[in-house]
Amino acid sequence: MTISIQDPIALIDGPSRLAEPSDAPGDTGHRIVTGDRPTGPLHLGHYLGTLANRVRLQETGCPVTVVIADYQVITDRDGTGPLRDRVRMLIAEYLAAGIDPDRSVIFAHSLVPALNQLMLPFLSLVSDAELNRNPTVKAEALASRRSMSALLLTYPVHQAADILGQHGTLVPVGKDQLPHVELTRLIARRFNDRYGTVFTEPEALLSATPAVQGIDGAKMSKTRGNTIPLGATDDETAAIIRSARSDGLRRITFDPVARPQVANLLTIVAALTGSDPRQVADRVGDGGSAALKTLATEVINESLRELRRRRTELLTDVGYLDEVLLDGSARATATAVSTLDQVRRAMGMDYFRG
Ligand code: TRP
């Protein structure tokens, strides 16, 4: 079975439908750009939501660029936190999950200044009303319990610079990021209309797994403290799963509406084992929440064992992690500078052309 990655929809339908490396279409011309904020360790929601997908895309032969969005950390909080450690941990987690620094690029915003310059013409292409309508930004402003900073309002434009600066065409993200990809498309379109075609409109690529919930039933997120961190030990994982909400019914069924917490554990197990949540429910049968939790713990620990081993090993070699970041940022800078040249030329700012 060959699935062309040119058809992103085909990729949305689950791991079982993804192209195997063996029948990879090779260089499809797609360039993948995605990223994370370095605000804490990655968790299972990241892994199922985008991380596994990034590695699969890398295996199809597409160039993958991962942005460590350090300037996005201060969109909704007052300080940067222990950034150096968090950035290193993120890199270790990417590599442990299978991102290969020889084939893929990992860079940090703060190490690619050319990217910031792209933001200025991009800002001229959107209105404040459009920025104020962004539902993800509105939700973040609300959750931060602060007044909206100008950076929070405009970071989706900066994110457009992340993507378009690297000439990204496919953006694997969670659902909350769709408004930003939409805005990026709008910016690309308007730039091209105004100055001549420089950009391709990128497409979002949603992963197969519906948003994984945290153990309290809310969205799994660092700020809510309800996550299953990738770096948790087996015992920590067991304790987290044990404390997860569930219900007292003996018979386990997959019913996301009536039994969201049970459905969430079934979804996690199904996603990690490449099966269907209903099948998993049948397997647990009359075992109740206790059996489901035992199964979920086993599956999570087993699925993450190798990743965790690599992660621990990588974290002992910070020199190497720093080298990966420096090298990736140099490569991302080269691409961003060349994009900026194209932009300046299109805008008539290429004053010193021979
Ligand atoms: N905003 C994204 C998040 O919070 C992170 C991000 C930054 C990103 N730059 C990006 C994602 C470019 C995709 C493409 O998760």
- Calculate Rg over CA atoms: 21 Å
Structural class: mainly alpha
Mean pLDDT: 90
Give the low-pLDDT segments: 1-26
Largest sheet entry: 3 strands, parallel
- Helicity level: 40-55%
N-C termini distance? 51 Å
Principal-axis shape equals globular
What fraction of the residues are assigned to beta strands by DSSP? 5-15%
What binds here, in terms of ligands, is:
tryptophan
How many E-type strands? 5
Q: Determine the number of helices (DSSP H or I, runs of at least 4 residues).
A: 13
Strand order of the largest sheet: 1-2-3
The helix/strand order is HEHEHEHHHHEHEHHHHH
Give a written overview of the molecule.
Helix content is 52%, strand content 6%. With 354 residues, it is mostly helical. A 3-stranded parallel sheet has the order 1-2-3. Helix 3 links the parallel strand 2 and strand 3. Helix 4 runs parallel beside helix 13. The longest helix has 29 residues. The chain is globular and about 75 Å long. 42% of the residues are buried. The N terminus is likely disordered. Tryptophan binds next to strand 1, helix 7 and strand 4.
Structure at a glance:
This protein has helices spanning 8-12, 44-59, 83-97, 113-123, 128-133, 135-144, 150-165, 178-195, 234-242, 260-273, 277-284, 288-315, 318-346, and strands at 32-36, 64-68, 105-108, 170-173, 203-206.
